[in-house]
User: Fold these one by one.
Assistant:
Number 1:
Amino acid sequence: MIAENDPVEQEKAVKLTSLLANCVIFHTTLDLMNVVRDLQAEGWQITGEDLAAISPYLTDHIMRFGTYATTELTVRPDAFDPRLDVEFEAEEEQPAAA
């Protein structure tokens, strides 16, 4: 909610909300990648089609006005590893509509 009628403060609120949403999506993506890697380590075969069925843009578990722990803010996370050993098949091109 934007509580002030000041355009500068309104812009800050919108940008910070967008930043927070992007951080949550990125964190969810990292969690999904860890689960996929764990499943692969257990012997599961993960395909690109499997990954297409999941999304890091989840909203059900977000507590917009909830309480969040800040005790881990000073803990340095592990380095981000973008590699994910999953085969992706190329989509067939659809003929252009006339």
Number 2:
Amino acid sequence: MSAEQEPSGTRRGRPRDPQLRAQVLTAASRQLENAGYTAMTMEGILADTGIAKRTLYRWWPSKAAVVAEAILEGFVSVPENRIAHTEDVWEDLRNWLESVAVSVRGSYGEVLRAATAIGATDAALGESLTNAFARPARADVIARLQAAAKRGQVSPGADLDAVVDLLMAIIVYIGVSRDDAARIPGALGVIRLGIEP
């Protein structure tokens, strides 16, 4: 299909062509992985798919919208990284942080950086990404900390939401800065000093 061709039945308000939609989201996913969010462009997606420019912009008004939909619809691989529930909450947290750090040093790092950039420029899309990925991860870690509090490993008065904020901040910092994760044990040690009974 040439750049000037447009699929039938794509007037404003009508459903998007599923095949062309999948082509665009696949192209966005590929460009996100290969070039990164900052370098990818709507023009690159147009060149990769041959979709008409007016159609692309009618379906997605921005690069952020295309990438967010690709992430949310499963065209981009997002690791689950659930936290373990063993006898040692601190070992579980360390292993979880290190596992996520490995993920963000790979292709998932670009997903995290894209989600961070999208959230900074489009509050609604950022909220959708948060609801899909950050909130479930937070709930998983809070459940682990609550279990630890019941076992006497975490102070019953600890502000678990604040603890999870700090843990998530470590992940975002590693993902955005591409920094080494060697400081994870030290950072976790500081948190432990604050909430251990």
Number 3:
Amino acid sequence: MSIVVTRIDERLIHGQVAYSWSVAYQVTEFIVIDDGVANDPSQLLLLSMAVPSGKRHAILSVEDAVKYFDEQSDLEKTLIVVKSPRVLLSLIEKGIILLSINVGGMYYKEGKQEISKTVFMDEEDKAVFLKIRDHGIPCEIRTSPNDKSINLFTKI
């Protein structure tokens, strides 16, 4: 598997991710990594329906994702999508190599401050991103593939 996009988007797979990103990066496989969603039959069904026809997909817990990545070949062009940077830090700490991270949608909740129109963070989120930066992984804010890339670290 070749990871072509690693994206944080609280909505996981939706029209923009399913089509814009998959076309721009010629994605052949979607991997959703979320412990809660992986154990929720309703969410599994809904997310599976959002995947474009002809594309592979898996909805996995963090532990299952690590095993999955270890077993896959490089034939697929994979888009990983998660709700939170904590999931990606966990993967990184378990040895999964991510070349870059796209932050598209971390939405407003009480206690979070606006970083961009679609990205809101609290101090814990910022601390997680700084740990990711310590691993040498660039992070960008970009809602769609056609948007200008903004270095996340200049905003936190």
Number 4:
Amino acid sequence: MSTPNGPDQKIVITAATGRLGRLVVAELLNQGLPAGNIAAAVRSPQTAASLAELGVEIRNADYTEPQTLGPAFAGADRLLLIPSAEYGQRFPQMKNAIDAAVKANVSQIAYTSFVNTPVSTLRLADEHK
């Protein structure tokens, strides 16, 4: 089966044990991407046992520990960057992640933002502006 990402592309999903991250991993598998082409970059690898059982590679990645990000993103062709829910920390955390992705030569980075960011009155939206 042909997948939209190619047969030998490595996709790294950050926050893969969260609600959105798990849905993304499940959809990639549903679309036919082999589990070996997916890496789940998570802050607590022990919480990713169910993903590992599917054949997904588990990598330690903590946005507040930049030294973990380079190895987590190594060999990735694509990176889905799902921010943490820590208010007040998104900009420095995402800067750490993007800097690490650039150093790891990730060719495509996708960032999950916030709906209607420019006009939202929710405090969390401010961090996505």
